[in-house]
Every structure is written in structure tokens, then in C-alpha cells.
Amino acid sequence: MTIEALTRALQLTHEIHDAARQRDWLRAEMLVSERSPLLMSLKPEQPPHALVLIREIQTLDEQISEAARVGLDTLTQENAKARQRIQSVRQYHTVGML
Fold first, then answer.
1. Which tens digits make up the pLDDT trace of 1-52?
2. Are 13 and 35 in contact (CB under 8 A)?
């Protein structure tokens, strides 16, 4: 991978990070699809300046993963609350029909 491609992968990672912070998961997924081939082309041996960029990508990826976990937890909790409200309404209607 050239340094230009690695620099582009880092730029995309920053954009993915921004999309994750905004909870724009569709945009994040599109950016990940664009970035993946760049990362897959990495060779095991990298010069020191490339390793700095790779470490930054790894750090951002950890933050993106944490944002995704928090987002999933939030959606799961909201879903459970919505299901409970639906169940409460059903019970209310059932009692009202008696």
C-alpha cells in the first residue's frame, strides 16, 4: 500500500468516526466499504511513518466500535421500553372490553 492510500484510509476513518458520533450508520457503512479494500491491501512490513498512521486508524476504530456498542445498547433499551408500552396499551384495551 502506498502512503497515499494509507493516508486516504486514515481520512476515511476520521469520516467514519464522525458519522458514528452523529449516529449516521448508513454513511458509516458506505465509508467502511470504501476503506476496506485499502486496509486489505496492507502488507505486513511497514515503514515507521506508516505505522503511526495505522496506529491512529486502530485508535479511531476502537472509538468507533465503542460508539456502535453504546448505540446498540441505547436502541435495545428503547426497543424494550416501546414493547412494554405496547403491552400496557394491549392490557388497557383488554380490560376496557370486559
1. 688 999 999 999 999 999 999 999 999 999 999 999 999 998 888 999 999 9
2. yes
CA distance 41 to 96: 64
Distances (CA, A) of 39 to 19, 29, 51, 73: 19, 15, 13, 28
Sign of CA dihedral 73, 27, 41, 11: negative
Rounded Cα distance, 75 and 95, in Å: 30
CA 64 to chain centre: 5
What is the distance between the alpha carbons of residues 11 and 18, in angstroms, rounded to a whole number?
A: 11
- Report the alpha-carbon distance of residue 57 to residue 39 in Å, rounded: 10
**pTM over the 0.85 mark:** no
